[in-house]
Design a protein that fits this description.
alpha/beta, 375 residues, globular, Rossmann fold
Amino acid sequence: MLFDDRPKIQRRDLFNRERELQQFLQALKTATPLTLILGMRRLGKTSLMLVGLNESKMPYLVVDARSLPIRYSWRDLYKSLETSLNEFLNRHKRVSTRIREFLGSLRGVEFEVSTKGIRVLLSWGRQERPSLSALLEALNDWAESEGKNLVIALDEAQYLRGPLSLEITRAIAYACDHCRNLLFVLTGSEVGLLHDFIGIEDPEAPLYGRVSMEIRLEKFSKHLSRQFLVAGFKEAGITPSQEFLEEAVTKLNGVVGWLTKLGARCMKYGYADRKLIGLVLEEASGLVVLELQHFLETRPLEARRRYITVLKAVAADKASWSSIKRSLEEEEAKSISDSVFYNLLESLLKASILAKSDDHYVFTDPITAHAVTKL
């Protein structure tokens, strides 16, 4: 259903993403080595990826980088890979014994066999762990033996930035060059940070020049938002008022995740009441606050205060360079250099919290304006 707020896995539940889905399917069909699916949070990147992977009939494994802690370790990374491999083995029980033949020869890879099937166990110690390149080579050899391509999808891949990012990007670059039966798909909502991870503008980065396809998801227009809600409520057997639809379209501003959450809430109660829009806005702002706190907690205390001041200035419509800088200087009662201020704004742009619109800065997600009042 359209109002199921879990990631979609079937085409019929993916609303108005036909063009992007065809782009993705074409990238898979033509064995594009590295594809990016980009867009702000809650526009359906994971849904698009899963629908495309299921329609392609290709074997795939998905690593959800959001599950990693901010300062993730080799243990965190290998436990995440282990989870992904076991989900893959569970989906492909028929070939699990064959995959075991290829992975089992690697150091640091063991298998647990039970009535439930085969489960892989990875070591992560310095001396014991299999290298990332060796794991990818083994998976490639299995895929080649099956006469298939294997898709490795890294969901929200910007979270792989950090002390191990160079090892990860080197392994992907090696696989792009030498593992012809592996295809990589990376999604990212913090577009600038994902580009930094890949090294889009860094000629010395391992993945520089290797991105073959970028697919970008945009917010729905007011017209499409209305169509989505009407179609979803028809599925749910609920008839909303025109006033309800207008307010929902205006306040949720084309973010399909929030529109879906509103629809799901209405389905739960069995009616479409304008009060539910307020409840969804409150719930949504709580989630955005957590995301902002996640962004802030990696920064020094002084920088956190400055980011919050900048965000509150944008929320108060003081959104030009000079107005935001003036608000920051008034808060600190001192002058701030242009270079320091530029770096603050650039970080918020790369994290896709802000976007530039003409000579002003705006929130990519309209809920953020409400959320920053809680910081």
